[in-house]
Amino acid sequence: MKRTNLAKEVSSMCLSIRDAKISSNENVISALISMFNKFENPLLACEIYKERIVELLFLLDYLNEDHVDRDVVNEVKSSCERLMHLFDAPNLNKVFNNISKSIIRDIDVARLRAVSSEMNRVFPIFVLKEDDVSKILADFEEFYSDYMRDGELNEFVKYSISNGLERLRFCLNYYEFFGSSSVIDSIYIIHKDLYISKGSSVYCSGDSRIKRLEELMTETIKKIISLDSGFDRVSSLYGKIIMLTQAYDAVMKCLPPPS
What pTM, to 2 d.p., does this model score? Predict the structure, then answer.
């Protein structure tokens, strides 16, 4: 399977957004609606965009100085801090083509790619094939449709994971923009909210629908992360706000206990 990493995915995300075919006079909000029109809330893209960059900033601190110069890392951090402001509130009414090109510069993209090979070595993830994306999306869409129409399921449990499911569907629909890291992060959000709901008195541990959701999450994560390769480096960072660590933990909780 083809490997990728967060630095590479963030650089591709930035270029995909900057180079989108948007009318010359459209403001940022209109541009978002044009780019992400499959969903009622295209502004969700702003949140996901910024989170991808923030997660990259966290991971940069754990790159080995023997393999990548600290000055290079600091330049990447500077670019990340610049890039994350694209969708700040004061920019939403500005002309998209102007603001996107002024914030997403070629030099920033080049800096991100400069650390991609080291990211690939330390924090590798896999690119989903187009057929896999379609299959995973169809499975979660089917689950979401049945789940949200279910009148018997407790509303607290339903609400507790609906936001994560909506976000995951968004990321899968726009996988070419946000990549595998966004899928991992969305699944972790579902896992976290599901874990919280399990502590409530209204949660039914034997519910076949919840078991199906856990199966879908596990199957998806296993396509993106190799559990037996490289993640000893990440697991030592447990407790930090690092998306890949969280995703690894989510998978281990979803997998059946050792026999």
Answer: 0.82
